[in-house]
Amino acid sequence: MNSTPLIPRPLLFFAIGFSLLMLALQSVQPNLLYQRESILAGEAWRLWTGNFVHTNITHLALNLAGFWVFLLLCGQTQRLKFLIFSIIFCAFIVGIGLFLFNPQIIWYAGFSGIQYGLFLAGGIVLVIESEKVYGSALLMLVIGKMLMDAFTPTEQLSQSLIEAPVIHQAHWYGAIAGIVSTFPRIFQAIQHQPAPHV
Fold first, then answer.
1. Where in the sequence is the signal peptide annotated (predicted)?
2. Which CATH number covers residue 129?
3. CA angle 150, 25, 67 (to 5 degrees)
């Protein structure tokens, strides 16, 4: 790793503002959470905004802590525009995925789906940026956590803290979106590879 700050200044300012925004959004949480019936009634914004409100302050604190851990681990290789794009894209895919493929889920709130996408995107970018061992370790850790969650029958602690069931489907949709969001950077890295010597 190089000696640049763990979180570059533009990302730091954005992260502070974004954290304060999510805290403020809790005051209007009922109007923003993913609610299937309300979406069907025309409140389409809930597909996206449900990712930015939480069931309670503990839920918010847990997800914000995860967001800051992501920045500490991956901030050196993140570009602000890419981070913002990844958040918006992951939020959209999580909402659309739940709506199209999980009609039994009538409501959802939380940033965790996006968070899984960010961690996977961050790991891939680390690999692209020549931090192959570090990036690969992060990818294996996150994928291992997702697989462990998929085969864990109950999560009593998590459910008691957030006062709601854990929606693993959102994690998978976010993860897929995070991987897809890195495609332009992957293609860019491939194009800039030096030609092999003959």
1. none
2. 1.20.1540.10
3. 45
Q: What angle do CA 151, 91, 71 make, to 5 degrees?
A: 80
Give the confidence band of 1 by pLDDT, cuts at 50, 70, 90: very low
Q: Is 4 exposed, middle or buried (0-12, 13-18, 19+ CB in 10 A)?
A: exposed
User: Residue 192: exposed, middle, or buried by beta-carbon count in 10 A (0-12, 13-18, 19+)?
Assistant: exposed
Question: pTM to 2 decimals?
Answer: 0.92
Task: Assess if residue 191 is contained within a domain.
Answer: no
d(CA 167, CA 87): 18
Q: Which helix (H) or strand (E) holds 46?
A: helix 46-49
- Range with the poorest average pLDDT among 109-113, 162-166, 176-180, 184-188: 162-166
Tokens 């996206």 sit on residue? 48
Rounded CA separation 79/83 (Å) = 6
The domain total for the chain is: 1
In a domain, 30, yes or no: yes
Mean pLDDT of the chain: 92
H or E element, residue 72:
helix 57-74
In a domain, residue 193? The reply is: no
In a domain, 139, yes or no: yes
Give the residue from 71, 74, 66 showing the smallest Cα distance to 1.
Answer: 74
Quote the domain boundaries for residue 16: 9-186
